[in-house]
Amino acid sequence: MTHGMHSDTHHPYLDGDRNWRDTATRYALLPLRVFLGVTFIYAGLDKLTDSAFMKDSGAGSIGDMMRAVRDSSAIPAMVDLALDSPVAFGYAIAFGELAVGIGTLIGLFARLAALGGALISLSLWLTVSWASDPYYYGNDLAYLMAWLPLVLAGAPMFSVDAAFHRRRRQRAGGYR
Question: Which of 26, 39, 87, 114 has the highest CB neighbour number within 10 Å of its CB?
Fold first, then answer.
């Protein structure tokens, strides 16, 4: 008895050329983009609207949080930099999260936004959540890994980047 391999075992789903697998592949990063974009926008707004967070000291302040994690972080020197001006660092993180979230959600400079999100997540993992035991309790590492597919692929669907790309392609085709 021989066994053959069929490469056309799934049925076309959309417009003749595409099947359901191709469609799922095209849209695979969209839920991740929406989740990370909304989450980072929310995180940035939450920091900016929390009056206790944007203070050098006090319950819930960025300053007290940084002092609490300094000795348990992977790179205490990073925390020391933040402690030089904790409020400025808090604003930098909040505005960075907003920029990353908006860029990711609308797909504007999507790879750059994703790289920014990965760097924010990496810095938070190395400082704030480094001491999580076991390591997978620290959510910043999971966020870092979630950003990597978007760093690699960008936002090819439903994005400003995709619209710019289509427009450039149309213009290039019109000059031939």
Answer: 114
Q: What is the distance between the alpha carbons of residues 78 and 123, in angstroms, rounded to a whole number? A: 8
Residue for token digits 């750059």?
Answer: 112
Label residues 108-134 b or e (16+ Cβ within 10 Å = b): bbbbbbbbbbbebbebbbbbbbbeeee
The 3-state secondary structure of the chain reads: CCCCCCCCCCCEEECCCEEHHHHHHHHCCHHHHHHHHHHHHHHHHHHHHCCCCCCCCCCCCHHHHHHHHHHHCCCHHHHHHHHHCHHHHHHHHHHHHHHHHHHHHHCCCHHHHHHHHHHHHHHHHHHCCCCCCCHHHCHHHHHHHHHHHHHHHCCCCCCHHHHHHHHHHHHHHHCC
Q: How confident is the model over 90-124, as pLDDT tens digits?
A: 999 999 999 999 999 999 999 999 999 999 999 99
Q: Could you say which residues of the chain have pLDDT below 50? A: 1, 5-14, 176
* N-term to C-term CA, the chain: 56
Tokens at residue 118, please?
């990965």
Cis link prior to 31 (omega < 30° from 0)? no
pTM: 0.84
